[in-house]
Amino acid sequence: MKIVQIVPYYPPHLGGMENVVKEMSENLAKRGHQVKVFTSDIGCKNVKLRSTKNLKINWLLGWEFAHSPILPSLFFKLIRIPKDSIMHVHIAQAFVPEIVFLVSKLRGISYIAHIHLDVGPSTKMGFLLPFYKKVFLQKVLSSSSKIIVPTKDYIDLVSKKYTISKNKIYKIPCGVDLKNFQSLSGKSHDLIRLLFVGRLSIQKNVPLLIRSFKKITEKNLRNIELHIVGDGVEKSKIINLIKAEKLEKKVILHGTLRGKRLYKIFSNSDIFILTSRLESFGIVLIEAMASGLPIVVSNIPAVRNVVENGKTGLLVKPSAEDFAKAIEKLLNNS
């Protein structure tokens, strides 16, 4: 089968969607399917993954506008794909889905729409987002053969928001390879390590994490650190907040970690924290679970489908006070 994956970004670009598409493409290729990936070279111009047997990665020149990639050559690449191909478009930003829609109409090639996140406004152009979703994205979704989402909450959201029949929407949760993660049960050390892993973006709401940690350091006398793994457009803002709260000696910024280095920091940590405003799933949550970490996470849609409050983690109101209380509860039980 000829499968064409169209995704705005691809590893080594950082993100859950990127990793999902990579794993999916590699496994489809291993099963003998002919897989082509069309993606931007944004964030990976110097280091790019190479194509392998049955898997061809096409890196397209691109730039960003309003946090969405512009890929001038994508239309001309897709218009030439074999007509017996299946297009699988991964949706978290604008522009790319509309190109797939246009090619589908011109060539009569079906496509699957895979929603990784229903984004909210994040730039000065954010006021246009409701119009874009109502006029353009709704058309892309309604014209697709099938729609994939990662959680039950997203079935409800997509069906209601875009007037799509639930019979057309399929839930396929994300997963991780358990052999990569190690649970160090019975950890015993004086230093408590809190961990965050993710993009430093508005969506992840890292300033809330910093303010929550500040409250913990003011109330808790134990030796405690916050480790932040990731990079992104909010990095300078986060660094300034760390300095303003005088937490330079207690907050460690690791930048982007991958592979064994990432798995190791999961294993060496004690509590995982995610303060996101929006998530469609949160792959880092199941990575933390695979590492045996207790979780404190915002009580928001989709996350509630992944974390069961009081059993697999603590769901809390997204406020500094509530996050601090939940973390202190775990510290007092350790």
Automatic annotation (TrEMBL):
InterPro entries: Glyco_trans_1, Glyco_trans_4-like_N, Glycosyltransferase_grp1. It comes from marine sediment metagenome. Pfam families: Glyco_transf_4, Glycos_transf_1. One of its GO terms (molecular function) is glycosyltransferase activity. Residues 186-333 form the Glycosyl transferase family domain. Residues 15-179 form the Glycosyltransferase subfamily 4-like N-terminal domain. This is Glycosyl transferase family 1 domain-containing protein.
